[in-house]
C-alpha cells in the first residue's frame, strides 16, 4: 500500500528516540516522488502492452522490475520516514501499519469484485463462471505464481504483497525497541526461504516481493546523504545496468537478477530525478503523480480497461491503438490532478482519500 509520507522527511536515522518525538523540518524528497511517479508511468506502458499488443513475453523481462520496485519503495518509506517519526516504544506505528495492510487487502477484494461486474459490460471478458477453488486462493494469497480467481485473471495483484509487507512490518516494529536488527534478521530469514525454494526448482512471487520490500526497509535505514552519494557515480551505475540488461537477455529472470534490477532501476530513476532540479511542468507532473502513486496505479488499470474496450469494439487498428498509449498517460495524470484539487476544495473527499489510501 502506498505509505503517504508526512510533510517532511528526516535526513538521518535516530535509534535512541525519546518518548516525545520531534520530526525534522526538512522538506520532502522530490527525487523520491519523481521515482514513484516515473514507475507509475512505466506501469502504464507495461499494462498498455498487455492490452494492445501481442509482443512475446520475453520482452516483458525488461519491465519485470516494476512491481517489486513499488514494494521496495514502500519498505524504504517505512524505515526512512515512519521509524524515524515514531519513538521505538510507541505502539501506534505497529497498529497503523497493520491496519493499512488489512485495508489494502479489502481494497484488493473490492476492486476485483467490481471488475468482475464491469468487465462483461465493457465487453473485454466474461464474468466468473465458478467460485474460486482452494488452489486459486492459494495461488493469489500465498504463492502469487498464478494470479487467477475462479479461472479468470485478477487485477491489482501488486496490492497483496504490499499489504503483507505492511502487516509484517507492523509486527516487527513491536520488537524493534528490543532489537534494532529485527528487520535485518527477518530479511535474512526470508532470503533463506527463497533460496531454499530455489533449490527445489520452486518460486513464490509473493515471498520474493516481500523479501524485496524488507530490503527496501534496510535501505531506508541509510542516511539520505549516503543514498545521494550514489548519484556521483553515474557512469558506474550505467555500466552496471548494461551488464544487468545483458544478463536478463541471455538468461531467465531469476530472483537474484530481479533484486539487482530493482536496485539499479530505482537508483537510476532517483539519480535522474536528483539531477533535474528545475521546476518544469513535466517534472512537476511526474512528482505530483508520485505523491499519488497508489491512486495512479489503480486508475491507469481502469482507464486502460475502458480504452481497450472502446478501441477493440471500433476495430480502429494499430495506428489508433497507439493513440490510446498517449491517452492512457494523459488520463492517468488528469485523474490524479482532479483528485488533488478535489481534496483541496472538499473536506469529505479529502477524508475519503485518507481513509482509503493514507
Order of helices and strands: HHHHEEHHHHHHHHHH
Spatially, the strands of the biggest sheet line up as 1-2
Number of strands: 2
Total count of domains:
2
Q: Return the structural class.
A: mainly alpha
Q: Outline, from the CA principal axes?
A: globular
Proportion of residues in extended strands? under 5%
The chain-level mean pLDDT equals: 83
Task: Estimate percent helicity.
Answer: over 70%
Tally of individual helices: 14
Radius of gyration of CA atoms, rounded to a whole number: 20 Å
- End-to-end distance: 9 Å
For the sheet with most strands, the description reads: 2 strands, antiparallel
Model regions low in confidence, pLDDT < 50 over at least 5 residues: 1-26
Could you describe the 3D structure shown?
- It is built from 14 helices and two strands, in the order H-H-H-H-E-E-H-H-H-H-H-H-H-H-H-H.
- The chain is 71% helix and 1% strand.
- The protein has two domains: 112 residues, no CATH class; 214 residues, no CATH class.
- 34% of the residues are buried.
- Helix 1 runs parallel beside helix 12, helix 1 packs antiparallel against helix 13 and helix 12 runs antiparallel to helix 13.
- The termini are close together.
- Strands 1-2 form a two-stranded antiparallel sheet.
- It is mainly alpha-helical and 358 residues long.
- The N terminus is likely disordered.
- The longest helix has 31 residues.
